[in-house]
Amino acid sequence: MVECCLSTPSIVGAVRSAGACSTPKSGKVNMTGTVKSAAAIGGGVIGGGWIARFLLNGYDVKVFDPHPQAKRLVGEVLANAERAYRKLTLAPMPPKGNLSFVSSIEEAVCDADYVQESVPERLDLKRSVYAEIERHAKENTLIGSSTSGFKPTELIEGFATPERLLVAHPFNPVYLLPVVEVVPGRTTADNLDRAKSFLTAIGMKPLVVRKEIDAHIADRLLEAVWREGLWLIHDGIATTEEIDDVIRFGFGLRWAQMGLFETYRIAGGEAGMRHFMSQFGPALKWPWTKLMDVPDLTEELIDTIAAQSDAQSGKHSIRELERIRDDNLVAIMQALKGNDWGAGAVLKEYESSLYAKAHSHERRPTVDPQKPLALRADRVREDWVDYNGHMTESRYLQVFGDATDAFLHFIGMDKDYLASGRSLYTVETHIRHLREVKMGAPLRVETRLLGFDLKRVRIVHELYGGPENELLATGEHMLLHVDTAKSAAAPMDPALTIKLGEVWKHHRHLESPDYAGKPVREIMMESAAS
Ligand SMILES: NC(=O)C1=CN([C@@H]2O[C@H](COP(=O)(O)OP(=O)(O)OC[C@H]3O[C@@H](n4cnc5c(N)ncnc54)[C@H](O)[C@@H]3O)[C@@H](O)[C@H]2O)C=CC1
Ligand SMILES: C[N+](C)(C)CC(=O)CC(=O)[O-]
After folding, report:
1. What are the helix (H) ranges across 360-454?
2. How far out from the chain centre does Cα 227 lie?
3. Where does NAD(+) bind (predicted)?
4. Residue 44 marked ligand-binding
5. Which of 96, 177, 237, 372 has the smallest count of CB within 10 Å of its CB?
6. CA 473 to ligand 2 center in whole angstroms
């Protein structure tokens, strides 16, 4: 917790600037009730994570936090979050939202459709912040609280519009971990739905807690584990590092993918959960845990824990530790995505929503059909670079593959088309690497249709970039239309061929690339030998 800033809104009111709001208080969110802009009240560890998630998902965010270094602190969390997202996904993220720091709660919330409160865990402070939010926010602005343990009915005391306040309890780092415990309190079903769709749209998995309790679901569990950890240190049985080791080399790996009960079902062998319960149930009554006893947090115990923690992790700054943690979380989530499981399944769903948005009319670039199609732009990310300092080979295929996907969306191969059991598979690829492509270089792909018939599409992508906007690489591809259930070639839907025909009407007049259709050159061994 940042000690300097347990400021109450009345103190904050002294620095409030006037005339901040363009929207009158009574203004509706918008016609559809969807969230378009967000405010963050509190930009510490958790507020900073929320701010990063909102911004990276394209929402403008106004932040109020009286901490004198709030800008720097949020900036550092945001930098780490951007770094993590570059590794997390290649899906087209929306343009980043605008971040502004304001000097009052009023300025922060007056235009916002969604407000996330992340001030320190003190009930009086939270309530006074809500009173200020309520005074200045639009009438159907949603308010989410990051509280780790307060129940919504405690939070809403004295609040005139409790139907719009809910607990939205996230997990650190908020920009990566998907789950958010949503505790509705007296929120209306409509507002609950709005909150859930907003949280889902920013890549989260809202889990509605059906009955409010202190500390919701997760912190009840986490506190039990933490309490046992404190006892183990207090009793001199284990150090902070040893406790962390049994988790990270052992059951923590299981928890990341199956949680507690599914793991224990397997631990029951073929007889499953019933056998597990009968074998280990009695142990619950043995003195395996300290139950609700809490060790006194004496200076001595705190010193021991802090010293052990320094010995364990003191060689890294907190920001470095965050980056190590983020890299590991990204690796786990990507592995789980490959298995379409747990947090990986959420990531997969989120990515497909990003692709769908990118290909929707809203964000589709204006395309001039008379020219090669400019459907894909990117930048060489830091983990795309090989030991030569160049974009590594597999990333060329990634960039061209994404450009092919963009082209297929352009001609009408959308989610519904795929769901109908039809798709286009790439059956042949020829990539030419023409110039060095270095880290950070902006890339632009131009796509041209070289021909098509009822079952095949032939395209070529040209990759441009670098300081002179030069041609860096080319990729020529043959795609085959298939019936995915039969895994056999099949004619395309007429809608696709009509669209291809429209593109072809223009592209047939473009100058044919002289390299197209040519194989990799042969090496004449006779001349090499002579
Ligand atoms: N740290 C964690 O692991 C988690 C914390 N939470 C919850 O998130 C909330 C915030 O916790 P942290 O971010 O950890 O605390 P923090 O101490 O890192 O940040 C709190 C921020 O609130 C600011 N603040 C203080 N008074 C304010 C006011 N009147 N208006 C606006 N900003 C004000 C402070 O300057 C500080 O930057 C708490 O309710 C906590 O229980 C939820 C999930 C995890
Ligand atoms: C320790 N804590 C209660 C603040 C933890 C949380 O609320 C969730 C988390 O991120 O572990």
Report:
1. 393-410, 415-419
2. 31
3. 42-47
4. yes
5. 237
6. 48
Alpha carbon nearest to ligand 2 atom 4, residue = 148
For residue 146, the ligand closest to its alpha carbon is: 1
Ligand 1 within 6 A of CB of 7: yes
- Contacts of 511 by beta carbon, 8 Å cutoff, 6+ apart: none
Q: Is 219 in the pocket of ligand 2 (CB under 6 A)?
A: yes
User: Does domain 365-507 bear CATH number 3.10.129.10?
Assistant: yes
Q: What is the pLDDT of residues 234-278, one digit of tens each?
A: 999 999 999 999 999 999 999 999 999 999 999 999 999 999 999
| Alpha carbon distance 193, 206 (integer Å) | 10
Distance 170 CA to ligand 2 centre (A): 8
- Tell me: is residue 47 an annotated ligand-binding position: yes
3-state secondary structure 222-241: HHHHHHHHHHHHHCCCCCHH
Residue from 222, 326, 329 to probe ligand 2 pocket by mutation (most atoms less than 8 Å from CB): 222
Which residue has its alpha carbon closest to ligand 2 atom 11? 171
Q: Which ligand is nearest to the CA of 46?
A: 1
Please state, rounded to an integer, the average pLDDT across all residues of the chain.
90
Amino acid at 70: A
The answer to whether 152 and 178 are in contact (CB under 8 A) is no
Burial (CB count within 10 angstroms: exposed 0-12, middle 13-18, buried 19+), residue 387 = exposed
Ligand 2: distance of its center to the CA of 219 in Å?
6
- Kindly state the DSSP code that residue 251 receives in the 8-state scheme: I
Sign of CA dihedral 196, 200, 202, 205: positive
The domain 221-315 having CATH identifier 1.10.1040.10: the answer here is yes
Every domain of the chain and the residues it spans? 3-208, 221-315, 365-507
Rounded-to-integer distance, Cα 283 and Cα 277, Å: 10
What was the ipTM of the complex prediction?
Answer: 0.98
pLDDT digits (tens, 9 = 90+) for 332-356: 999 999 999 999 999 999 999 998 8
Prediction pTM value: 0.83
Which ligand does the CA of 1 lie closest to? 1
Mutate to test the pocket of ligand 1, among 3, 4, 5 (most ligand atoms within 8 A of CB): 5
Q: How many helices (H) and strands (E) does the chain have?
A: 19, 14
Looking at ligand 2, which residue's alpha carbon is closest to its atom 7? 148
Torsion of CA 413, 417, 206, 146, to 10 degrees: 20
| Both tokens assigned to 328 | 């590991």
Tokens of 313: 């992790």
